[in-house]
Amino acid sequence: MALALPGTAEAGTQDYAAVFTYNGHAVNVRDEATTSSAKIGSIPAADSWPCFTSNGCYTKAGGSYTCWSGGPSGNRWVKVAWGDFYGWVPQSCVRIGRA
């Protein structure tokens, strides 16, 4: 899915940092970098989503998580664009690259 970052040209014309869902699993977007914070959305399996910053993906330590039963776990989170705001996805549950 080609998406444009807020304030940029039309979708598909930009090269931007993004997260990609991993191993066929959707990933929840949280209000804060913890699983106990509000779920504000979900990135569908086999999809990508722009990071909040256009030059790279910002990560930070947050609450612990497990991606899925028997899957990866960790406590690093990635900041993603979500409408006019931003949210957080668990870093071990996505792959980071350029879209």
Automatic annotation (TrEMBL):
What Gene3D superfamilies has UniProt attached to this entry?
SH3 Domains (2.30.30.40)
Superkingdom of origin: Bacteria
Question: Which protein are we looking at?
Answer: SH3b domain-containing protein
